[in-house]
Amino acid sequence: MKKIYVFDTTLRDGEQVPGAKLNLIEKVQIAKQLEKLNVDFMEVGFPSSSQGDFEAVKTIAKEVKNVAITGLGRAVKEDIDIIYDSLKDAENPLIHIVLGSSNIHMSKKFKKSPEQILQMGVDAVKYAKKYMPQVQYSLEDASRSDFEYIWQTIEGVVNAGATIVNVPDTVGFALPETFGEVIYKINDRLMNLNPEVLLSVHCHNDTGLGTANTLAAVRNGANKVECTINGIGERAGNTSLEEVVMGIQLHPDYYNGYTDINTKQIYETSRMVSGIMGLDVQVNKAITGENAFAHSSGIHQDGLLKSKDVYEIFEPETIGAPPMEIILTARSGKHAFEYVSKALGYKIPEEQLMPLHKKFLAMADEKKEIYYNDIINLLDKENVTKEKNIELWELLEFQMSINSNLPSATVKLKKGEEVVITSESGTGAVDALYSAIIKGVNLPIQLNDYRINSLSRGKESLGKATVEIRYNHKTYNGKAIEKDVMKASALALVNGINKMLLSN
Ligand code: KIV
Ligand code: ZN
């Protein structure tokens, strides 16, 4: 089995998303998380483009020691000098040079002949080699380039000392089958030329094929993949790291390979990048979306309760995500209803299951979201016996005083017989509300993420609040849908806390 090297470019290509520019502290925070994820390379900026990028590369090169660090530049001496300066303190530095190889780029962007461009590339690699042993050469727009010209360029730059050649699908134009064939032919020739050189690919997602093209390349001989967390990047983005890594992990024999990624850090990295960059992860995003492990259809819930592998190809814990969720909806069958009731401590006698399930369905038809407390209230009203005394928090009331200087909140919460009333102020309304709830439940809960989305248009629209909390090194999600966004926010947090209590 061969090792597939993972090159993360979240902090360079990913950061090219409009509006996602990061400051130095944020870049360092993400770089340290990428180190925990155990990527092999991280590209953290384009040092000649701005003083900010230069500082970011320089600081990360100093602070992150277990990953090869690189900065990108054009095939010109000035850029290479600046990359070298920015990487001086790196333990394992790599100079990354990019130059177009397609006729479109050569004639329209550079207004130079293919021979001139080839010479520029070779000269740039030779120049970079004087500074550092590790040099990567990227043939920009390779997927729209003439194959023999690509090969001549690779031959030239490898003979000049390039240690990695990168074949990008810069505009997301490639198809898995044809891109795979190109990589196969390059690999075949590269093996004869210099088998030590890494063959890398870098795909964009303009037609949604970034992951498919990258995996096709791996299958055909590529041993290095360039990706970003959550697939962020220019236009429709780059190849998503988590999708490629899990693709290889789920099919090691097919790809004859493995990566060294610490998959348990995937979820945390995804949420950190999303939170810091302000770019939401689409709810149905493969691997890391909020719904990636949520099951709501009755047939699926029933199958899962019989055996998880019926509908789950890997456990959410593999990527450090919160455990699989059975979401009770009007489509949930009696087994799912019974399962959640049992988790809440109730034992439903066999003869009561059907009528109770009917009542549950009537309630679910009316409500957009079913909370644990709704099930508890239903079961208590019907005098179902409790075999375990599991007590969850219920939000009885809350009151907000919103003024621009010091918003404050008072909440009334109940757990079993215990009723608490707490007040807090905060920097904003949600901060005050959450501080009051956390004070009320009196647990060292850390709030990782909070989001509010509108589910429809207009001022009457429903607000969906989503929170992510951390307690005792584990992550839990809570969610609530209400017309009043503050109520949705409060219930989402209480819901997350209850999930945490239930799983503990
Ligand atoms: O998309 C691209 O071609 C790039 C190169 C710098 C690898 O980002
Ligand atoms: Zn790119």
From TrEMBL:
What keywords tag this UniProt record?
Amino-acid biosynthesis, Branched-chain amino acid biosynthesis, Leucine biosynthesis, Manganese, Metal-binding, Transferase
The record's section on InterPro entries has: 2-IPM_HCS-like, 2-isopropylmalate_synth_dimer, AIPM/Hcit_synth_CS, Aldolase_TIM, LeuA/HCS_post-cat, LeuA_allosteric_dom_sf, LeuA_bact_synth, PYR_CT
Annotated ranges, domain Pyruvate carboxyltransferase: 4-267
List GO molecular-function terms, semicolon-separated.
2-isopropylmalate synthase activity; metal ion binding
Q: Establish whether keyword Transferase is in the entry.
A: yes
Lineage: superkingdom: Bacteria
EC main group: transferase
Q: GO:BP terms for this protein?
A: L-leucine biosynthetic process
Family label:
Belongs to the alpha-IPM synthase/homocitrate synthase family. LeuA type 1 subfamily.
Q: Which PANTHER family match?
A: 2-ISOPROPYLMALATE SYNTHASE 1, CHLOROPLASTIC-RELATED (PTHR10277:SF9), HOMOCITRATE SYNTHASE-RELATED (PTHR10277)
Q: Report the protein name in the record.
A: 2-isopropylmalate synthase
Q: What species is this protein from?
A: Natranaerovirga hydrolytica
